[in-house]
């Protein structure tokens, strides 16, 4: 077994597409039950920009659209436009459970990967880096689309709960450089819609469950990657 997964911890992940009215009500309900995430800025938010990868068969995309319960996807993620923390991640999904494997990159490694120099990932003593290297060499794992949004995060110690509201979802179309100063993303989702995610370990406290539930609010698979991919014009499913 790949030793990168020896200490893999799976968590529950629930996603909801909500409107602005529902967002304000739920946030007000949560006000005295949770606290802002310590990584949020003074306005309670931070910015996320991710570069998603897919292979020559577009496996991550097709498996998501096909409703596969067990799947994974790769991405490079940065926060607030800074290169102080660059993470190459693999998000693994098994039903309603998720786990992540992460590999930190420095700016030089990031630039090398973006320029097609995958040898920087050839690290025999690093199982996840080697997995990425082999995916790129054997399955032609390549950058596909940038996903850009603002996150408003909250946490609750009981159950290790994390609730996030992801707003202003944008895509870079065919852009692939997370640090391109001329990058001008376009809206990928109506501004009236917000993606709410609820992640937790073994249990979700009843008072949290009650706070995030509303009549007509249903769990759904709101994939930012798929939403943004629909703006690319080289997919045969774009009109579905």
UniProtKB/TrEMBL annotation:
InterPro entries, alphabetized: VTC_domain, VTC_sf
Domain VTC: 10-232
Single Gene Ontology BP annotation: polyphosphate biosynthetic process
Name recorded for this polypeptide: Molecular chaperone
Organism: Paenibacillus antibioticophila
Biological classification of the source: Bacteria, Bacillati, Bacillota, Bacilli, Bacillales
